[in-house]
Amino acid sequence: MGRRMSAEPTQTVPRHRDVVIIGAGISGIGAAHYVAGELPGKSYTILEARDSPGGTWDLFRYPGVRSDSDLFTFGYGFRPWREDVSIAKADRIMSYLRETVEEEGTAKRIEYGRRVVAASWSSRTALWTLRVQGTHGDEAETLTCSWIFSATGYYRYDQGYAPAFEGRDRFRGPVVHPQHWPQDLDHAGKRVVVIGSGATAVTVVPAMAATAGHVTQLQRTPSYVLAQSARDPFAIAARKLLGDGRGHALARRKNILVQRWVWKFCQRFPTVARRFIRRATAKQLPNGYPVDVHFNPPYDPWDQRLCLAPDGDYFAAIRSGRASIVTDRVRTFTETGIELESGRALEADIIVTATGLNVLPLGGIRLDLDGEPVDFAEHVVYRGMMLDGVPNFAFAIGYTNASWTLKVGLLCEYLVRLLKYMEANSWAVCAPVLPADAGSTRPFLDFGAGYIQRSIQDLPRQGQESPWLMSKDYHDDVRLLRRAPVQDGNLAFRREPEGAPSGRRTA
After folding, report:
1. Which domains can be identified in the chain, with CATH numbers?
2. pTM above 0.85, yes or no
3. Nearest-5° angle of CA 357, CA 195, CA 275?
4. Closest residue by Cα to residue 47 from 144, 154, 122
5. What is the per-residue burial (b if ≥16 Cβ within 10 Å, else e) of 232-267?
6. If we measure between CA atoms, which residue out of 425, 395, 429 comes closest to residue 412?
7. Which residues are CB-neighbours of 198 under 8 A, at least 6 positions away?
8. pLDDT tens digits for 130-153?
9. How far is CA 297 from CA 30, 56, 64, 225, in A?
């Protein structure tokens, strides 16, 4: 499983690694591939707070949990997805990640039960000092590193978002958030109300409806939902014809183009896209179904992420009568269910609050530079992965309008190019410098999802032009991160100071 801390006295001389990757989810495992493969002379370790790899896919255990992107693009470019089903459930994704960890040799580099709580940069030593706590009562430890790559994502693992519903304590049955699903919850034959309209609700509703007495989805605001085949015939044929490696690469390129085209079409022709989605939705539902009541969002397509229904399972549950939708607002919980603002009552044995996530930048890690705390909201993002004025620090944030991992892979490619450039030129320190004439800034993510909007004031900012702009286009990012020169005039470098710890190269 990897190294755990022993309960020995705290070290007087901290361990040192060239690169510390924080998080062993899909981003951190991918980052390890690039660091190990492209920088064989660099020492690295992965610190993971949980007891197993997988991150999100190890955390979420709610019924039906699956990807909402195809695994040819959500998976790694360097490791083929060999399943015929491309919209995959969590157990298959976890198998894919575990196999990657074992076959890449990453397993021996992961230290489980290790939560990074703070990181302090010293300009005198040109090093980060990380404060690490054991999650099983182990004694705290410090270690140093030259670079940090944060692969923690942007939401809080230990707490999902749940509005303060009036009367919640009055309800006699269980109230469950999908982020903390009890494995012993029995919903067979029960009346279930699922509050929410996002991807989680669209997943939970058909999964629970298969055995529940009835599932009612209660939504305040509708979402766009598209049925899509869970299998990709093109990808299956490509793999049979070309083999797993080349077939995967071809399917990946095709799906990148499709994702990009759909997003650009929706952005350029939102009214046409809305009509198309409405027609596709109506075809999935019974004649006379009130589509404009339950599937008519007040925003344009891709202002928020589209929800996918693999093989139309969500619509099938509605057609069968096992599930239904109510568009209304909660007035109060009662002993036996929910009373709505319209006056209607929903009877329930179980209530599921699929109400979203809480954003937590960098997993709640506290950063400081020479003793001065880093306020993320005061910094601007460079190339979508670094913060102006913060040295030797990078982080992974994927796409919100396409598969997350597409962006993360490009960020990792740029990181190893940057580290190679620094080594070739004997640089020890690198930090982006925001130009004096950069102009105004805007929110980090131009995304209307509630979990982003609730925390937008705590996130970094983005500029108006590249490389200070958060790109949403894969092809633009290929040019910026894979092909553009490492030094574009926005990076400041310096050599290691004379007072560097002995045993480390001084330029």
Report:
1. 15-158+359-494 (3.50.50.60), 168-353 (3.50.50.60)
2. yes
3. 90
4. 144
5. bebbbebbeeeeeeebbbbbbebbbeebbebbeebe
6. 395
7. 223, 305, 307, 354, 356, 449
8. 999 998 888 889 999 999 999 998
9. 35, 27, 24, 10
